[in-house]
Design a protein that fits this description.
The structure is a single chain. It is built from three helices and seven strands; from the N terminus they run H-H-E-E-E-H-E-E-E-E. The chain is α+β, with helices and mostly antiparallel strands. The chain has one domain. A hairpin with an 8-residue loop joins strand 6 and strand 7. It is elongated, with a radius of gyration of 24 Å. The chain starts with 7 loop residues before the first helix and ends with a strand.
Length: about 180
Protein backbone atom coordinates (compact mmCIF):
# COMPACT_ATOMS: atom_id res chain seq x y z
CA UNK A 1 0.00 0.00 0.00
CA UNK A 2 1.42 3.34 -1.08
CA UNK A 3 0.85 6.46 1.05
CA UNK A 4 0.17 9.63 -0.88
CA UNK A 5 0.43 13.13 0.51
CA UNK A 6 2.78 16.01 0.90
CA UNK A 7 6.24 15.68 2.31
CA UNK A 8 7.43 17.90 5.11
CA UNK A 9 9.70 19.76 2.71
CA UNK A 10 6.85 20.49 0.32
CA UNK A 11 4.71 21.85 3.16
CA UNK A 12 7.56 24.07 4.39
CA UNK A 13 8.10 25.46 0.86
CA UNK A 14 4.40 26.22 0.41
CA UNK A 15 4.06 27.88 3.83
CA UNK A 16 7.22 29.93 3.26
CA UNK A 17 5.99 31.05 -0.16
CA UNK A 18 2.61 32.08 1.27
CA UNK A 19 4.35 33.98 4.06
CA UNK A 20 6.50 35.91 1.59
CA UNK A 21 3.50 36.73 -0.59
CA UNK A 22 1.55 37.92 2.44
CA UNK A 23 4.44 40.10 3.62
CA UNK A 24 4.75 41.72 0.19
CA UNK A 25 1.04 42.05 -0.60
CA UNK A 26 -0.41 42.98 2.80
CA UNK A 27 0.94 46.54 2.91
CA UNK A 28 -0.65 47.22 -0.45
CA UNK A 29 -4.06 46.17 0.80
CA UNK A 30 -3.80 47.55 4.34
CA UNK A 31 -3.24 51.29 4.22
CA UNK A 32 -2.68 52.53 7.75
CA UNK A 33 -1.60 56.01 6.64
CA UNK A 34 -5.22 57.09 6.19
CA UNK A 35 -6.01 56.00 9.76
CA UNK A 36 -2.99 57.97 10.95
CA UNK A 37 -4.07 61.11 9.07
CA UNK A 38 -7.59 60.81 10.49
CA UNK A 39 -6.17 60.46 14.01
CA UNK A 40 -3.99 63.53 13.55
CA UNK A 41 -6.96 65.58 12.29
CA UNK A 42 -9.03 64.44 15.29
CA UNK A 43 -6.14 65.33 17.61
CA UNK A 44 -5.77 68.81 16.11
CA UNK A 45 -9.48 69.39 16.61
CA UNK A 46 -9.30 68.30 20.25
CA UNK A 47 -6.21 70.43 20.93
CA UNK A 48 -7.83 73.42 19.29
CA UNK A 49 -11.01 72.98 21.35
CA UNK A 50 -8.93 72.88 24.55
CA UNK A 51 -6.84 75.92 23.58
CA UNK A 52 -9.94 77.98 22.73
CA UNK A 53 -11.58 77.12 26.05
CA UNK A 54 -8.33 78.01 27.81
CA UNK A 55 -8.16 81.43 26.15
CA UNK A 56 -11.78 82.19 27.03
CA UNK A 57 -11.20 81.12 30.65
CA UNK A 58 -8.02 83.17 30.81
CA UNK A 59 -9.98 86.19 29.61
CA UNK A 60 -12.73 85.57 32.18
CA UNK A 61 -10.18 85.31 34.99
CA UNK A 62 -8.75 88.65 33.89
CA UNK A 63 -12.19 90.24 34.17
CA UNK A 64 -13.70 89.29 30.82
CA UNK A 65 -14.66 91.36 27.81
CA UNK A 66 -11.06 91.88 26.70
CA UNK A 67 -10.26 92.60 23.10
CA UNK A 68 -7.18 90.35 23.33
CA UNK A 69 -5.05 88.25 25.66
CA UNK A 70 -1.45 87.15 25.80
CA UNK A 71 -1.13 83.49 24.86
CA UNK A 72 2.41 82.19 25.34
CA UNK A 73 3.89 85.52 24.32
CA UNK A 74 1.54 86.06 21.38
CA UNK A 75 -1.48 88.31 21.17
CA UNK A 76 -4.76 86.54 20.45
CA UNK A 77 -7.64 88.89 19.67
CA UNK A 78 -11.30 88.17 20.38
CA UNK A 79 -14.41 88.48 18.24
CA UNK A 80 -17.76 88.04 20.00
CA UNK A 81 -16.04 86.67 23.12
CA UNK A 82 -14.02 83.96 21.35
CA UNK A 83 -10.64 83.95 19.61
CA UNK A 84 -10.80 85.55 16.18
CA UNK A 85 -10.99 82.87 13.50
CA UNK A 86 -7.80 83.66 11.63
CA UNK A 87 -4.87 81.50 10.63
CA UNK A 88 -2.30 83.32 12.76
CA UNK A 89 -4.28 82.72 15.93
CA UNK A 90 -4.51 79.00 15.14
CA UNK A 91 -0.72 78.91 14.80
CA UNK A 92 -0.48 80.41 18.29
CA UNK A 93 -3.19 78.27 19.88
CA UNK A 94 -1.90 74.99 18.43
CA UNK A 95 1.74 76.01 18.84
CA UNK A 96 2.36 74.70 15.34
CA UNK A 97 4.73 76.09 12.77
CA UNK A 98 2.11 76.47 10.05
CA UNK A 99 2.97 78.33 6.87
CA UNK A 100 1.19 81.48 5.88
CA UNK A 101 1.96 81.48 2.16
CA UNK A 102 2.84 77.96 1.00
CA UNK A 103 -0.64 77.19 -0.31
CA UNK A 104 -2.42 78.78 -3.21
CA UNK A 105 -5.79 80.45 -3.21
CA UNK A 106 -7.04 77.32 -5.00
CA UNK A 107 -6.79 75.19 -1.86
CA UNK A 108 -9.91 73.28 -2.90
CA UNK A 109 -8.20 71.96 -6.05
CA UNK A 110 -4.42 72.08 -5.39
CA UNK A 111 -3.06 69.83 -2.60
CA UNK A 112 -1.27 71.26 0.42
CA UNK A 113 2.50 71.15 -0.02
CA UNK A 114 5.74 72.40 1.55
CA UNK A 115 4.39 71.90 5.05
CA UNK A 116 2.94 69.18 7.25
CA UNK A 117 -0.34 71.14 7.32
CA UNK A 118 -1.93 74.06 5.54
CA UNK A 119 -4.27 76.56 7.15
CA UNK A 120 -6.65 79.21 5.89
CA UNK A 121 -8.65 81.56 8.09
CA UNK A 122 -11.18 84.37 8.09
CA UNK A 123 -13.39 82.40 5.71
CA UNK A 124 -17.09 83.32 5.66
CA UNK A 125 -19.72 80.65 4.97
CA UNK A 126 -20.32 82.25 1.56
CA UNK A 127 -16.82 81.24 0.35
CA UNK A 128 -17.60 78.48 -2.15
CA UNK A 129 -14.04 77.08 -1.90
CA UNK A 130 -14.67 75.71 1.58
CA UNK A 131 -16.75 72.57 2.14
CA UNK A 132 -20.30 73.12 3.38
CA UNK A 133 -20.66 72.59 7.14
CA UNK A 134 -23.97 72.33 9.00
CA UNK A 135 -24.53 75.33 11.25
CA UNK A 136 -21.98 77.54 9.48
CA UNK A 137 -24.31 80.32 8.39
CA UNK A 138 -22.56 83.35 9.89
CA UNK A 139 -19.23 84.45 11.29
CA UNK A 140 -15.89 83.17 10.03
CA UNK A 141 -13.94 79.95 10.12
CA UNK A 142 -10.42 78.53 10.09
CA UNK A 143 -9.58 75.28 8.33
CA UNK A 144 -6.49 73.03 8.70
CA UNK A 145 -5.72 70.11 6.39
CA UNK A 146 -2.73 67.77 5.91
CA UNK A 147 0.00 67.75 3.29
CA UNK A 148 -1.02 66.05 0.07
CA UNK A 149 -4.71 66.82 0.53
CA UNK A 150 -7.00 69.56 -0.69
CA UNK A 151 -9.50 71.25 1.62
CA UNK A 152 -12.24 68.72 0.95
CA UNK A 153 -12.98 65.85 3.32
CA UNK A 154 -9.94 65.58 5.63
CA UNK A 155 -9.64 68.68 7.81
CA UNK A 156 -10.15 70.23 11.23
CA UNK A 157 -12.02 73.48 11.66
CA UNK A 158 -12.91 76.26 14.08
CA UNK A 159 -15.99 78.36 13.39
CA UNK A 160 -16.64 81.52 15.35
CA UNK A 161 -20.29 81.66 14.34
CA UNK A 162 -21.88 83.35 17.31
CA UNK A 163 -22.34 87.07 17.39
CA UNK A 164 -23.53 86.82 20.99
CA UNK A 165 -20.39 85.15 22.40
CA UNK A 166 -21.81 81.63 22.72
CA UNK A 167 -19.76 78.48 22.11
CA UNK A 168 -17.84 78.32 18.83
CA UNK A 169 -17.88 75.15 16.73
CA UNK A 170 -14.68 73.12 16.73
CA UNK A 171 -14.78 69.80 14.89
CA UNK A 172 -13.27 67.77 12.07
CA UNK A 173 -14.11 65.87 8.92
CA UNK A 174 -12.09 62.68 8.38
CA UNK A 175 -14.10 60.75 5.82
CA UNK A 176 -11.50 61.30 3.11
CA UNK A 177 -8.27 60.87 5.05
Amino acid sequence: MKNSGFTLIELVVVITTLGILAAVAAPRFIDLSSDAKASVIQNISGNLKTAIKFTVLKDQIAGGNSDSIDYNGNTVTFTAGNPTANAQHMRYLLEMDLPSTTFTSNWSTIPCKNSEFCVVGNRPPSDNRIPPIDGFNSGTGVFLWPNGYVLDDCFAYYLNVAEDGSEPIVDYVDTGC
